[in-house]
Amino acid sequence: MLLRRTYPELYRNHIQEIQKELKKDIYKYNDQKHIFTFINGSSLECGSCQYEGDVYNYLGAEYDHIGIDEASRFTKFQFNNFKTNLRSVRDDLKLQMYLGSNPGGVGHGWLKRLFMDKEYEEGEDPKEYKFIPAKVYDNTILMQKQPDYVRELETLPPDLKRAFLDGDWNVFAGQALRWKRDKHIIDKIPYPIEDCKRVIGYDWGYNAHGAAVFLAKTPDNHIFQYKEIYQNRKTPEEWATQLKYEIQARSVEAVILPHDCFAKQQGRDSIAEVFKRNGVGPIKRADSLSKNARTNGLALFHMYLDNAPDGIPYFQVLDTCVNTTRTLPELIYDENRSEDIDTDGEDHIYDAIRMVFLAWGKPKGRGGAVRPVGPEPERRQPTVIGGRVPALDVKKLFKKQKGRGWMYD
Hints:
Blueprint: E1 2-4, H1 7-21, E2 27-30, E3 35-38, E4 43-48, E5 65-69, H2 76-83, E6 96-100, H3 108-116, H4 140-145, H5 149-154, H6 158-164, H7 181-184, E7 185-186, E8 197-203, E9 210-217, E10 223-231, H8 236-249, E11 254-257, H9 271-277, E12 283-285, H10 293-305, E13 315-318, H11 322-327, H12 348-360, E14 384-385, H13 399-402
């Protein structure tokens, strides 16, 4: 199978070109199914996956080779799901997946981590990943037919030039957040959490992931994230049980929810009502519905990532919050709205944190030196990660907004 993110890209760059290049007597093309069938019995399916939920169009399909062109346009969620399609009952075939990509895009972070930085998470086998660098000069056919192409790349802005001409993956054109691992990730909270204002920011998800982030604000306006819960396939009642347990262990001033958590659908209680009924709270509604809520939220995020007067960022994250530290630096700007995040990315934790920043507003006062303390007395809780999504009718839930409506049946 050959994949592009959208069908127009697939048609213009591949289907048309294959039909031009190959002799007509060696294949037949099914225009409805987008499948080339060759005289030796092999076939090439041409697929697209514009929305995350489109991965479910390929449930149960088996391919011995999968090629993903412009892989940085794909999310890690999509890549992981297509990996499950790489299987065969034949022993004589070597299963392979090929990814071609430039730096940048919504998938830049996970591609760089797997293939360039070689930083692997649990369940990822380092032997499965090999990076084969290639630059424009290696494309001899292009150099012969379009020798001026290099000069066109040389006229790009510096970051884009380094990315597209030099193949520099340390340049992230389009990265939305000014995130620095050495500045924003810490191995312990340097302030007594019990002396902080503590809140939970929440972003609902059922088929897509839901996120709860636990933030502590010091008197001098430093904010530390000390815990996360990141999971899918959990009902509001199940979420309420988990959050109540956490609140009983360490109280919070508020659980901040976006506007969609206050909406009833098909006669069911809203998520906010379910939380209140099960002892989760106090509940506070964030301004996530107004016209400028998303752009204001991003602007606030930039402020909190900046340094306070003491030289330390206002916002820092404990290193055990692995999904937060993974997803925030991978977010990119929306191609159509440069003042907002691309919602095709894995932005669930970002949205949960954004709810808190919207509720708290701009950093106030001058940040003083944080007061050091000894080791945290209680054991850190492990990150909660949800399981796989089984087959169900979720395509309609994943359109552009990735199933943010809260109905789950």
